[in-house]
Amino acid sequence: MERFQVRGVSNRRAAGACKLIIVGVNASGNLEVMIERVLPDNECVVEVTTQVTGFRSVWQAVIEEFFERSNPGGLRFSINDGGARPDTVTLRLMQGMQLIEATS
Amino acid sequence: MSTVFQPHEADWYEATARERITGLLDPGTFLEFVGPEQRAMSPHLEQFNLTGAFDDGLIVGGGRLNGDAVFIAAQEGRFLGGAFGEVHGAKLVGLLRAARDGADKGGPKCVLLLLDTGGVRLQEANAGELAISETIQAILEARLVGVSVIALIGGRSGAFGGGGIITACCSRIVVSQHGRVSVSGPEVIETNKGVEEFDSKDRALVWRITGGRTRALTGAADRYVKERIEDFRAAAIALAARVPAFTIETLAAEQHRLAQRVQQYGDCRDSPEMWRKAGLAEPERIAELSDDAFLAIPQLKDAHHDAR
Amino acid sequence: MTLDEVLASLFPGGHTLERGEFGIVHGVGGAEGGPIALMGVVDRTPLSVDGALRLASHVLAVIDKGGNTPILMLVDTASQSMTRRDELLGLNEYLAHLAKSLALAAALGHRTVGLVYGHAAAGAFIATAMSMQVLAALPGAEPSVMDLPSISRVTKLPPEQLAKLAKSTPIFAPGLGPMFAVGAIAEIWNVEKPLSGQLAMLLQQSATGRDRRDQVGLTREGRLQAARISQRVIDEATHV
């Protein structure tokens, strides 16, 4: 089992006022993502707990690309991973982003 | 603070536990207790190299159902098979005790249990078994003070093992075709008694023995519903209005009802035999009927009772 | 101890016991405080729809008589009966019916005590032993959820590793020690002393009417989370 963080900076605060979102389920090939609006406006972090070891660099790349695309300033993402593929990870992060920016 | 989520999914089977809650309750009324941001997670999974869930796979809270205050608990059947672990079970027990204690103080008088469980989480076997027993006690204590407890079953894990026993302690039971209710799982029966006794890979057999339609036709469930969340919602609203009281009269009637079932069907090997004995028009085709055709079977209404 | 030895030690003043079908027994034990209704599942018989129904009928008979006769449930079962027939007939309802009958008896003033002296597992354990207000066990009893080889198969951990893990936590392993630590079992009795005295002391303890096994598990440090988590839910639910 591996636990690690990927930190980033953002050029803006994520839109909307919603403070808490949860998407996905920790099941085989899937992942659970919780998003909390708790950080300063230009900071973001993804904390990963995963059963599948040895893929940290892949996670790093996926997450950094997500940060660049979405600028999720102020958001803390927490992940319980059940062995999801990188594209599923990106999908969940984007889904979560959409919800936390759109929901009031 | 409420956890906000989008009710994308209309189908109960496909929905997550959170999506079922959103679709079941009146919009915007759900308030979660000990939510995922509190990270009340299982301390027992890491030693098995398993990652957890922020809510340990069991969501509890309060809300409104057709304007009436209710408590609600939903198991996430896709997380470790919805199985009972220490924290998961303790949340459910706490909710039921809150219902018991609050009933005469203006609290909700109805608890909705969205069961989706394979039973005990073996990595936490003793805690899971205790949680199931404590859940049973808490349901019955709540029923004794007039709280209704309604089980809703239609997910991929069904209500197996201790989950099956919990189901039958509830005031009312709602099932869909997908739903299954049982104690021993098919694989366990096959391992113990052989494939002749139960071929666990025969899905049609599994559903003929443990599926929602069999349970509804034998009175082991109180309402059969179609697959959408709104169908479960309508049934919950209808049933919550009037439930059997937990009294000696009810249990005496249940003793009689269960004895009758053994007498009538005790020699049957499979459900079509039961349907033939019950005089159904197409005993071999029950699984293939559309939901509308199944709901039109006269014996389905005959199976309704208050002996639970 | 055999069942007869157990009963002789429990009731030096005498007892009756009828052995029925499906492994179900019932009778009456003579004790100083008054007669005690006896019933149980014995001879390591798996609990079936028929057995559960029969046992429930004995519970309901005690309730029907009125009064507040205590009920002693003797337990030496296996797991629930694992057959196609039992599941087709809806075993879950029969086990639940038994659990409900026992809960109602307690609510109506009958003190309910379980004594597991042999085996008990899974659904049979839940519907009998664990449905009593208080559960005692004899040394050598073997309560469990599931045996270690089966747990090993499902969790995909080798049995040796499981056995090693079991040394550091009582949360999953079968047996009396773990079940005591997590709060399922209130007392393990001393077979060097008369069981009648130990039963009498247990019966004298006032019944709170509330299930406190999670508190017991916390005190014994076998189940550290459950009581606290339940209370947190209650606190939040009350402050809505």
Would you give an account of this structure?
The complex is a heterotrimer of chains A (104), B (308) and C (240). With 104 residues, chain A is of the alpha+beta class. Helices cover 31% and strands 33% of the residues of chain A. Chain A contains two helices and five strands. Chain A has helices at residues 56-70, 86-102, and strands at 2-9, 20-23, 31-37, 43-50, 75-81. In chain A, strands 1-4-5-3-2 form a five-stranded mixed β-sheet, covered by helices on one side. In chain A, helix 1 (56-70) runs parallel beside helix 2. The longest helix of chain A is centred in the C-terminal third of the chain and has 17 residues, at 86-102. The relative contact order of chain A is 0.32. Chain B is α/β, with parallel strands linked by helices and 308 residues long. Chain B has a seven-stranded mixed β-sheet, sandwiched between helices. Chain C has a domain at 3-139 and 189-209: Alpha-Beta Complex (2-enoyl-CoA Hydratase, Chain A, domain 1), CATH 3.90.226. A seven-stranded mixed β-sheet of chain C has the order 1-2-3-4-5-7-9, with helices on both faces. In chain C, strands 6-8 form a two-stranded parallel sheet. In chain C, helix 2 links the parallel strand 3 and strand 4 (71-80). The longest helix of chain C is centred in the first third of the chain and has 17 residues, at 49-65. The relative contact order of chain C is 0.11. Classes of the chains: A alpha+beta (104), B alpha/beta (308), C alpha/beta (240). Chains in contact: A-B, B-C. At the B-C interface, helix 2, helix 3, helix 4, helix 5 and helix 9 of B face helix 2, helix 3, helix 4, helix 5 and helix 6 of C.
